[in-house]
Amino acid sequence: MNDENTIVCRCSDVTLKEVRDLIKQGYTTYDEIKRITRIGMGPCQGKTCGQLVLREISAATGKSIKELKLHMNRPPVVGVKLDLIAEEAKKND
Ligand code: FES
User: Fold this and answer.
1) pLDDT band at 93 (very low <50, low <70, confident <90, very high)
2) Is 1 a domain residue?
3) How many whole angstroms from 50 Cα to the centroid of ligand 1?
4) Pairing with 79, which of 21, 56, 63, 92 sits 20 to 30 Å away (CA)?
């Protein structure tokens, strides 16, 4: 199996090749890779892919995984019902 077909993040469909290419370009923090690829932003919030990405960064930079930071978890955004938005819009007409 090659890097192009190996999925690192199943939620955001990111391959090992994409992660390795970004690391080669100088993106060596989890947050940088996350912002570019959306890795770790899927339903599992990086529980599956987070450690895999840290392992790749560690292997490429020589830093231990303990030195590397995983991304900050933020609570999910609360959905707003469309009828509430429509009601507010009517009030402003
Ligand atoms: S596998 Fe990466 S966010 Fe779920």
Assistant:
1) confident
2) no
3) 7
4) 92
Q: Assess whether the C-beta atom of 24 lies below 6 angstroms from ligand 1.
A: no
- Kindly report the pTM of this predicted structure: 0.74
Is residue 42 within 8 Å of 11, Cβ to Cβ? Answer: yes
Distance 63 CA to ligand 1 centre (A): 23
User: Each residue of 57-66: b (16+ CB within 10 Å) or e?
Assistant: bbeeeeeeee
Residue 19 sits in which domain range? 7-91
Q: Are 59 and 39 in contact (CB under 8 A)?
A: no
| CATH classification of the domain holding 61 | 1.10.10.1100
Q: Is the pLDDT of residue 45 over 90?
A: no
Ligand 1 center to residue 14 CA distance, Å? 9
| Domain annotation covers residue 27 | yes
Number of domains the chain contains: 1
- 21-34 pLDDT, tens digit per residue, is 999 999 999 999 99
Please tell me if the CB atom of residue 40 comes closer than 6 angstroms to any atom of ligand 1. Answer: yes
